[in-house]
Amino acid sequence: MDKIINQLDENEPRWFAVYTRSKSEKLVQRMLSKKGLHAYLPIQRLMRHYTRSTRMVEKPLINCYVFVRIVKNQYVPVLETEHVKGFVKFNKNMIAIPEHEIDILRRITLEDGLDVEVIEGHLAEGDPVEISAGALMGMKGRIVKSEGKRKFQVELSYLFHSLLITIDTAFLEKTKFGY
Question: Is the separation of the CB atoms in 178 and 126 below 8 Å?
Fold first, then answer.
């Protein structure tokens, strides 16, 4: 069995992504900052044209994600923050996000009016996946087809039957091996 990797360090702060409840990213970022934790929420500013007006709106670059730069003893205070669902893990591993990737997000969000759309491009039809959150957490299957930009149909094979369900990409992790 593979050993689970945890890149949290005792002394060196590292970047990690945190899942939040939908539409709670700004609130989570403020609450983490009030706790003295270094939290970063990439925000894009876009001009939106409505029937009678034009407005500048601010929205998170990546929905349901806030980035934190923490050391090991700050892990639990992050999880105890209201509206935080958990840390983003890759195949159950707690992998730090390199500083240069956070810098890329900062550069993208500094450009006002740049309409960037984040698409979960690493998942494709036929990919083996594991459900990483929710009531079906831990179940494995494979992607059958895309249902728009943020949802996939996933086939779960259990009890000699195939279950076809539609799942948001936020709840899926690509796995190395099939189910």
Answer: no
Q: Please give the domain boundaries of the chain with CATH numbers for all domains.
A: 14-110 (3.30.70.940), 128-174 (2.30.30.30)
* Separation of alpha carbons 97 and 62, rounded Å: 15
- Closest among 83, 174, 66, 59 to 126, alpha carbons compared: 174
- Written as one letter, the residue type at 57 is V
pLDDT digits over 6-52, tens only? Answer: 899 999 999 999 999 989 999 999 999 999 999 999 988 877 788 89
- DSSP, residue by residue, the chain: -PPPPB---SSS-EEEEEEE-TT-HHHHHHHHHHTT-EEE--EEEEEEE-SS-EEEEEEESSTTEEEEEE-GGGHHHHHTSTTEEEE--BTTBBPPBPHHHHHHHHHHHHSTT-------TT--TT-EEEE-SSTTTT-EEEEEEE-SSSEEEEEEEETTEEEEEEEEGGGEEE-SS--
Beta bridge partners of 44: 59
pTM: 0.66
pLDDT in tens, 62-73: 889 999 999 999
Task: Please name the residue that has the structure tokens 């491009």.
Answer: 121
